[in-house]
């Protein structure tokens, strides 16, 4: 099997080269399609999703409300044992 290329005729070698070129062309086309955001993405791009400023503000306000409630509860619990 190590001499498989030597056993092929010129016509078979040309056909193999044509197939290899076609595969390379199709692979390049597939890469372009996936890179341009085609219908099917096979691999992750590694980009982080971005949050809108409004959503960030809403989450921040909710978190401050939670912290304020915890702080108030801690102050209330500290005054009772006195």
Question: What would the keywords be for this entry?
Answer:
82 residues, mainly alpha, 2 helices, rod-shaped
Structure description:
The structure is a single chain. The chain is mainly alpha-helical. The protein has 2 domains: 8-37; 52-82. Helix content is 65%, strand content 0%. It has 2 helices and no strands. It has helices at residues 10-35, 53-79. The longest helix has 27 residues, at 53-79. The termini are far apart. The relative contact order is 0.05.
Question: In short, what is this structure?
Answer:
The protein has about 80 residues and is mostly helical. The protein has helices at about 10-35, 55-80.
User: Low-confidence parts lasting 5 or more residues at pLDDT below 50?
Assistant: none
| Structural class label | mainly alpha
Strand content: under 5%
Characterize the largest beta sheet: strand count, sense, and whether it forms a barrel.
Answer: none
Note the overall shape. rod-shaped
Q: Which oligomerization state do the chains in this entry correspond to?
A: single chain
Rg on CA atoms, Å:
32 Å
Number of helices: 2
* Tally of distinct domains: 2
Residues in helix, %: 55-70%
List the helices and strands and how they pair.
Layout: H1 10-35, H2 53-79
